[in-house]
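Practice problem: predict the structure.
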Amino acid sequence: MAAIKDVARLAGFSPAAVSKYLKNPDSVRPTTRERIEAAIAELNYVPSAAARALRTGKSNVYLLMISHLRNPEFVEEFQALNDEANRRGFSLLVQPARLEENEWNENVDFYGPAVQQVDGVIVMIAKAEGVLEQMQRMSKNLPVVAYGWPYACPGVDTVVKDMEDGVRKLTEHLLEQGHTRVAYVSDHHERMLPTKDKMDGYRSALRAAGLRVDPELFQVTVSSSDGGYRAAEQLMTLPEPPTAIVCGNDVVAVGVLKYAKEHDIPVPERLAITGQDNTYLASMSSPGITSTDAPDEIMAVSAFDMLAERRKDLSQPPHCVVYHTQLIKRESSLHAIAHE
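Answer:
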């Protein structure tokens, strides 16, 4: 394998000149650049990332700590972050935090080898207990961004996704359609940070409309279509079933829709359904599922802007930027309920 000294010898320059070119091609004269590039091509030289990290003190690698990659929304958020990393010439290392549905990997190491070899960390983990404290400690030595959290994390740069506002919009939309029995199917237990905020949005919309929050209309399920199906079964067999269901995400909504179809419940005439996250599942379902959409690409830009600023100065005060979701109306909720 060719080394930098081989490129220098063939091009007729010192290793320092080649190193200067590799750091910034525009920093050398055009004739010098042409000769170095010709030598690199002839030798098939590939710069060593490890060597570059030793020289510059930067790996150009960031770590993404993420709950899991089974929810299409997490995949889309990861894609937006990865695209932005690549656009800036960085690589994104992924470390999932959850092994199985509702089972957390307690061995996720916030101080392990992966963390020690990266230039910063993006934390996209929804679990409440312990994560904030871990981020606060880690941010003393490394740029850290809490990504997609429902509120500003004290002491840590945060990109906030206002989930409470999103669920409030969904619930208000259903109320405007004439529904008064509106259920909520959570994709996580309420101890999870996003779930608490989502539930606050649901409750506040009902109370603003003068409606009682009925515990009977709240179901906790796993984040899967099977979970949505089972939750719908519980709700639709109540003595007074709901006429509308707000689901914790699009995956759960697909399961609720499946139950409705298999039990000849017309959607949206007898049951309106909404999801969240506006994944491909919402647009490809029949009928299309009303959902909420966050600006993933813009949020990714903010995350890497924060990391870049934090790399300059770890001691500066934490920053927070808040992004609201947009209501995307589709056929699953757009007809008023049928009154018998």
